From TrEMBL, chains A, B:
UniProt entry tagged with the keyword Aminoacyl-tRNA synthetase: yes
Catalytic reaction annotation: tRNA(Pro) + L-proline + ATP = L-prolyl-tRNA(Pro) + AMP + diphosphate
Residues annotated as domain Aminoacyl-transfer RNA synthetases class-II family profile: 38-316
SUPFAM superfamilies registered for this protein in UniProt: Class II aaRS ABD-related, Class II aaRS and biotin synthetases
Domain of life: Bacteria
Keyword tags: Aminoacyl-tRNA synthetase, ATP-binding, Ligase, Nucleotide-binding, Protein biosynthesis
A molecular function (GO) term: proline-tRNA ligase activity
EC id: 6.1.1.15
Protein name: Proline--tRNA ligase
A biological process term (GO) from this entry: prolyl-tRNA aminoacylation
Class of the enzyme per the UniProt entry, highest EC level: ligase
Amino acid sequence: MKQSELFTKTLREAPKDEEAVNAQLLIRAGFINKTMAGSYSFLPLGLRVLNKIENAVRNEMNAIGGQEILMSMLHPKALWETTGGWNNIDVLFKVPSRTEKEYALAQSAEEAVTPLVLKHATTYKDLPLAVYQIHWKFRDELRAKSGILRGREFLMKDMYSFHETQADFDKFYAKAKKSYLKLYKSLGLTAKATEASGGAFSQKISYEFMVLTDAGEDDIFYCDKCEFCVNSEISKQNIGEKCQKCGKGVLHRAKASEVGNVFDLSDKYGKDFKLTFLDKNNERKHPIMGCYGVGVTRLMGVIVEKYHDEKGIIWPESVSPFKAHLLRLADPKSKAGKLADKIYAYLLADNIEVLYDERTVSAGQKFADADLIGIPWRLVVSEKTGAKIEVKARNSKKVNLMSYGSLRQIL
Amino acid sequence: MKQSELFTKTLREAPKDEEAVNAQLLIRAGFINKTMAGSYSFLPLGLRVLNKIENAVRNEMNAIGGQEILMSMLHPKALWETTGGWNNIDVLFKVPSRTEKEYALAQSAEEAVTPLVLKHATTYKDLPLAVYQIHWKFRDELRAKSGILRGREFLMKDMYSFHETQADFDKFYAKAKKSYLKLYKSLGLTAKATEASGGAFSQKISYEFMVLTDAGEDDIFYCDKCEFCVNSEISKQNIGEKCQKCGKGVLHRAKASEVGNVFDLSDKYGKDFKLTFLDKNNERKHPIMGCYGVGVTRLMGVIVEKYHDEKGIIWPESVSPFKAHLLRLADPKSKAGKLADKIYAYLLADNIEVLYDERTVSAGQKFADADLIGIPWRLVVSEKTGAKIEVKARNSKKVNLMSYGSLRQIL
């Protein structure tokens, strides 16, 4: 894409009320726009990143047998009264209407998915099954100051699984956990599966997937030898103590950001809605359910928190809006200018996603914008580079002169 | 995809309160699920159709230079007060919050897009520009009885264009109109550009794109000789009269469904928000704006209203969830059963989207489901078909025995 055709520009300043580094950088670089605290719009560059994260999530969920759906966001009050959420979930937006009916705005979708799935899955032969959606959620947050880490509206993947038995649920959970860790790795993140409390309705332990980052809102204790990790709120041990799990390591404290979670819902929702399936013995049973969340917009924010420097964002290749940022630092009609056009055409023909900065602005502005936007490979063509291309990785200071052929070896 | 792996089943009956044919068929065939009147969830088959319509819309908008974005759905009250919408738009959902702030739920996005775009487009050099989103909207409908034709939440493509002059807007409008007619045609629909009133805020004539269908909520008068078409509400002529435009044809009345619209917003939103760009003479000017809508979920409903018979849906190929529906009417271990498996593998290898009904249910059930689901090509492999495949188009009664090679000529 030609940068002159992109309607967004880099901005000198983020809004004064914007405290979070992720939103400051994403706004200044033209990825997002702030409508108000907790609500952001995604601009062409930002939407490209969001789509990439979304597709990575989708591929992982499909790989473990999840079936994609899209559930309504407006729910009748009755569904949330049935489960107790109407009065107990403080972040639930309640929407009045002209017909004097009240609606809930989905902050999660157990209330919608349970009746939906059990209309179609009626016997044990239909189980296990897992459905998921990648859809917007709403939460009435008192404070929304973490940029896209914690929004009043946000994009989330929520999967729900339905099982005959607890054992079958446990098996699926292990599969989902593995798939989550693989997903985060593909996005350039290392996440720890952390024991946490079960939330509003469950006495059970749930798991949160945590990425260690100073911008994190959670405190975790983790073992420096084994995989053990626990939210500090429910830890029975203190930092400095020997890990109870492996008996070898020592517990450390860290700030972390939640990028996913999984809840064992047991048979709560089947019971609440009085919905059952027919088991092998021809008896009516409530399904054992699990819920598996991944914050998609939140992941975008966490990646920026983790990958940036004083000049701007440093996107991991897997989610970058483009793979290469080609800068033409020459008169369009000069030999170098024409070479830049040619390199752009080559990259397009080779299916390399490239943003081509062919604007008539200063070299300094182009370099500053490239650093702020943070595409992994910066390619410069100027009078000085002759028949070659000056190649620099965003996460390195090293600059190399390369032929197009050599460049293609690394892209 | 194997049909046994699809969690949805066809249902004998739609909910009793479901009056609309589109929703009745889509629910029974397992494309959608009703959360409540006006709010539906999209199940795997339905999501496939929605994605296809969405991509057709996206391609057309990209082709005329639209840049895709995704805007927040929660807006601060102040934005809608500035434009007068807070008190004047009766379908606007107003959402209270714990912080005592009130929010509007986007029913359209002029209020969000105007400040957003004019933050980046600051001079005449940045114009014209057009941004669009394919995103969910909310409307507080008093009655929501038309299935997915008129929902309380619905997926819509809304594009907004920004121009220096009225003349430049007119030029872009002509381009958009052409692109709309092309889009509808690609979806199997013939739409008429109909003159209508300008809506809540505009004195100007707007255009609605209407598909003639008995399920339509609008009355239109159209000329049987030329392209003239007008909403009956604002028509200055009556049916039976000679068309004032071409002077040759006669006006007829028809029921129609709106599948898109375009509004000339003039400089209203720039004025309301006191936002300007710098023109060629270095003077501050409000941009001339246009708004261009396409109802994406509505289109899905209109297609079903137009393309169905007493047995079920008849999808146009361009939006069908699958191109072919392969039915195995034989024991899996028999020769015919194994041939069906082989045909399925061939189709997958040839990148033909195919739903494979390999379930152990009766032939009658499989035929009935195939008719209800409405995939364009039904392929049957049974003991009777020998080495060949029985091929039937959903919109025809003719049945042909074909080799796989001949089948590939028509798929």
